[in-house]
Amino acid sequence: MGDGVTTCDVLVVGAGPGGGNAALQSARKGLSTILIEDHAEIGTPVHCGECISEIACQNLDLQLPEDVISKRVHGIRVIFPDGTEKCLTEEGYVLEKHLFERWIAEEARSAGAELHLGHKLQSMERVEDGGFGGWMCLGKGDQFPIHAKIVIDASGVAAVCSKLVKMEGESPLNPKGKVVAGMQYEISNVPTDGYLDFYIWPKYAEKGYLWMIPKCDGRANVGLVTEDRPNAKKSLDDFISHTHFSDLDQAMPPWKEKGSPAFGGTIPISGPFLNTHYDGLMLVGDAAGFTSPLFEGGSHLALKSAVYAANTAAAAISEGDLSKERLSEYTDLWKAEFPPYEKILRGKEALFNLTDDEMSLMAKCFPDEMSNMGASGKAMVGIRLLFRKPGLYFKRIVPAMLAFGYSRAKYYGW
Ligand SMILES: Cc1cc2nc3c(=O)[nH]c(=O)nc-3n(C[C@H](O)[C@H](O)[C@H](O)COP(=O)(O)OP(=O)(O)OC[C@H]3O[C@@H](n4cnc5c(N)ncnc54)[C@H](O)[C@@H]3O)c2cc1C
Fold first, then answer.
1. Does domain 6-46+99-171+274-338 fall into CATH 2.40.10.340?
2. Could you give the dihedral angle defined by the CA atoms of residues 9, 4, 127 and 121, in that order, rounded to the nearest 10 degrees?
3. CA distance 100 to 165
4. pTM for this one?
5. Is the Cβ atom of 339 under 6 angstroms away from ligand 1?
6. Is the Cβ atom of 50 under 6 angstroms away from ligand 1?
7. What dotted CATH number matches 179-268?
């Protein structure tokens, strides 16, 4: 390459959980790796409820350092419209997510990756060198231009690279690539027994849900995701003022000094993009649309897809074949492992087709502890429910119930 061009095997775009882990895994494989992040620091503004399950950590072989863990939690309690509560006990963690992301990026640096903050990717041009020879990447920041054999797009919901190279197709399930709005406050002195509370209360969260996610020292994230994006803040404020949270104080999160105490972002909810790889390019995490469509968790999927992308990059580079045909291995890997998006989306649609009373009736037929409901347990619930209200069969209650099953940690649900 000519003067002034930075070169690397792998350029990772975005230092969220997906990008940090893609850089870490690539560096560990001996690839020369550059990780760029648009913001001047990693992890802020936080746009996450900050929870991750123990199963996810085991699956990823993540040994979380104590300082990134805010609280150890027991699982999720789902609260239905009439107040019926059911638990899904699966141990896990609430993180200080910005510290977690900084830790992963620091691990990547220790493994040999270069990290450049304040670097924003703005364009990509194919390099032809008697065949596809990588990408010439341009943008804001003194390391540009960067020539990379392979680019891993971990730019989150912005999905920068697929737009820049005009990759075909978003989700096959919803070609428009639907997103929901997520917003939360940090609240102080919140009582907790160590469960996350998920409220399925469509009155406040249209086709979404609300949460209380407990953190250390009585702090908690109280927030919602909703398809009614323009009214997200008002709906959250109404929920807080109509519930026991109304007596509690809102606090600025520790990483924020001024402005509104509310924080959040958008979340892709229509499932993976039609194409998640291209010549010399792989999309991971939210940039590929991997977020779980029911409860919208995405950190585990971002971290895991990063492992697959790094492994594929290492193999492709060692074989000197950067073509999309070679990188299709990446798509095969995640497809073999990730949740059955179509089933979850169908279940979600059926769930939100129910009235509040029907949802609550369904909840009453679940056992108090949902984590050990096997196939026969689910069948029993179905029979009980249809016996009490046979018409629900036509409202596709069975797929709605099954969607809860797929929200479990082992299916990357939280
Ligand atoms: C309100 C809310 C609550 C959530 N709660 C949870 C939860 O509790 N648990 C969970 O698992 N998931 C949760 N999620 C989803 C989770 O936050 C995401 O799925 C996860 O962060 C995706 O990781 P990522 O690395 O793919 O993308 P991101 O974390 O979005 O990181 C993308 C990074 O790329 C950078 N970037 C973007 N464009 C460029 C560019 N052109 N050049 C350089 N850098 C760029 C961004 O600045 C950002 O740092 C929540 C989301 C929201 C909005």
1. no
2. 70
3. 31
4. 0.95
5. no
6. yes
7. 3.30.9.10
